[in-house]
Write a structure and sequence with these properties.
Layout: H1 7-25, H2 30-49, H3 64-76, H4 88-92, H5 98-114, H6 121-155, E1 164-166, H7 167-184, E2 187-194, H8 200-210, E3 217-219, E4 224-231, H9 234-247, E5 253-258, H10 269-273
C-alpha cells in the first residue's frame, strides 16, 4: 500500500530545495554561501532521516531550526535573498508550540525590517500586509493539521506494524472484548503498567513483543501503558503477568483489572491510568 503521508514525494521536494540552494550558493559571497550550505545540509539530513515509523516528541522544538536558518540567510545578504521572506508562510504552516511561534514571528518581523533599505515605503508596507495575510492562512492550516493529527492518533497505531494504540482506542475496544470473552468463555483482563516517562516507548515495544499478536497494547498517558490480555483461565493469566513483570524495569509498577469489573460506558482513561498502591505489584 502506498504511504498515506506521501513520504517519497516529501523527500524529493526537500532534495530539490537543497539543490536550488546549492546552485544559488555558487555565486554567493562567503558568509551567504555558508548560510546556504548550512540550510541545504539541514534539508538533506531531514530528508534522509524522514521516518514515520515512530514519531514521538523528544522535547526538541525542531521548528526553531528552519526559522533560525531562514533569518540567517536573509540577514547575511538581504539584497540577494529577499525572495526568501515569503518562505515564512511555510514555516508558520508547521504545528508548533506557542513560544516557538512567538520566536518565529519575531524572526519574520526582523527579516521584514532588514529588507527596508532595499525597498521603497509602499513596497515595504505592502510586503508586511501580504506577509500578515499569508501568516494567518498558514496558521489556519497548521490548526487543521493539529486537529487532523489528533484524530488520526486516536484511531491509529502509534508505531506502525506494532500493536500499540492510542488510549482512546482502548475505550472503543473494551465493549467488544467483553462480549468476546463472555461468548468464548475465556479470561480477559486489562494489564496496566506504569513506568518512568523516558522508559515509555522502549517498554511499549517490549510489551507488544511479549503479548500475543491478537492482543493490543495502549498508551494511556506519558507514563502508563495497558494491554488487553486473553487467557484460558485466571491461573494462566497470573502466570503471564508474572512473566511480564519480570521482563520490565524494577521501577515499573503494574496492576490488573478483570474486564468483567469494568463498565465501558462510564470508565475514563484517567481512571484507568490511576495506579492503586494497594493493588500494585512488581
Amino acid at each position: 500500500m502506498q504511504s498515506k503521508y506521501k513520504i517519497h514525494l516529501l523527500k524529493a521536494n526537500l532534495f530539490a530545495a537543497s539543490g536550488v540552494l546549492a546552485v544559488w550558493s555558487l555565486s554567493a559571497p562567503p558568509l551567504a554561501a555558508l548560510m546556504l550550505w548550512l540550510s541545504l545540509s539541514w534539508l538533506c539530513i531531514t530528508a534522509l532521516l524522514l521516518d514515520f515509523s515512530h514519531r514521538h516528541s523528544h522535547g526538541l522544538p525542531w521548528q526553531v531550526v528552519p526559522g533560525v536558518l531562514l533569518l540567517g540567510m536573509i540577514a547575511v545578504a538581504p539584497e540577494r535573498h529577499s525572495l526568501l521572506i515569503w518562505a515564512w508562510a511555510a514555516v508558520f504552516m508547521l504545528p508548533q508550540a506557542k513560544w516557538v511561534f512567538i520566536f518565529n514571528a519575531c524572526a519574520a518581523t526582523l527579516s521584514w525590517i532588514l529588507l527596508a533599505p532595499i525597498l521603497n515605503l509602499p513596497e515595504w508596507v505592502l510586503m508586511l500586509l501580504l506577509l500578515a495575510i499569508l501568516g494567518v492562512l498558514a496558521l489556519s492550516r497548521a490548526r487543521q493539521l493539529v486537529d487532523m493529527n489528533g484524530a488520526i492518533r486516536q484511531r491509529s497505531r502509534l508505531i506502525p506494524g506494532v500493536n500499540l494504540w492510542a488510549g482512546e482506542q482502548l475505550l472503543r475496544d473494551l465493549p467488544r472484548e467483553q462480549t468476546r470473552s463472555e461468548r468464548e468463555v475465556i479470561h480477559a483482563e486489562l494489564f496496566i503498567l506504569q513506568v518512568k516517562r523516558h522508559q515509555l516507548w522502549s517498554t511499549a515495544k517490549k510489551l507488544c513483543e511479549l503479548t500475543y499478536s491478537f492482543e493490543n497494547a495502549y498508551r494511556l498517558n506519558n507514563t502508563t501503558l495497558a494491554s488487553l490480555m486473553l487467557s484460558r483461565s485466571a491461573q494462566e493469566a497470573e502466570t503471564r503477568r508474572q512473566q511480564l513483570q519480570a521482563a520490565f524495569p524494577d521501577n515499573a509498577f503494574s496492576h490488573h483489572l478483570p474486564l468483567i469489573d469494568i463498565e465501558p460506558s462510564t470508565v475514563t482513561l484517567e481512571q484507568l491510568g490511576e495506579l492503586p498502591q494497594a493493588r500494585s505489584s512488581k
